[in-house]
Each structure stands twice: as C-alpha cells, then as structure tokens.
Request: fold
Amino acid sequence: MSDELDAETLAFAHRMFDLARAGATEELSGHLDAGLPVNLTNDKGDTLLILAAYHAHPETVAALLARGADHSRINDRGQTALAAAVFRSSSEAVRALLAAGADPDHGVPSAMDTARFFDLPPMVELLRAG
Reply:
C-alpha cells in the first residue's frame, strides 16, 4: 500500500488550510465536527491553528482551541501559533492562546522573542500579563 495521498485528498487538505488562512470559521468548524483532525499539519509543519493565528483570525483560533487544537505544536521553522499571533499583533488571538495555556517562551523564536525583536511593546505586556 502506498503512503502517497491521491489528488482529491490533497486538494481537500489544501482547501482546509485555505479555510484556516481565510478565517472561514463556520465552514472549517463543520469539517472539524465531521471528523477532520484538528491538528492537521501541512508539509511545512503548519497546523490549522498556526495558520489561523498567523493570518489574524481570532474567531478561528478560538474555534480550533475549543476543539482541542494543540497550541504547543511548532512548525518546521520552530514557530508556534502564539508567536504567529504576536507577530500579527492579534491581541484577541494572543489572549485566546494564553487562556488555553500557550507558553510565551516556547518555540524558536518564542512569542516573547518575537514581540521583542519586532519592537511590539503591547504584545510584550500582553504576554507578561498572561
């Protein structure tokens, strides 16, 4: 049996990642509720949560967290969803991730490192307040 996915399955997976990037919370949630793995990961190690956070969609971030998304997962570059949300200065997504237990010092660069490197004082304060 081959480990290769067929074209239809790959197209579906790409569409799910596009939904996370677009913040299509309702549609993505429907697929998750129907059995889509909440920690689905692309070929770069990005999870649905990392993509939703990077594209500053706090509602999608919250929906993924509510369905058990792992906020501690890192992509192939060592980045977390929290670092992605900090980079985008998405306060709501940062708050949701912190409330779910995300660690500001996890990953390389960590969310805290990201906030400091890009000189984002409001994000540093938000991370400190936890």
Summary: The radius of gyration is 15 Å. The chain has a mean pLDDT of 96.
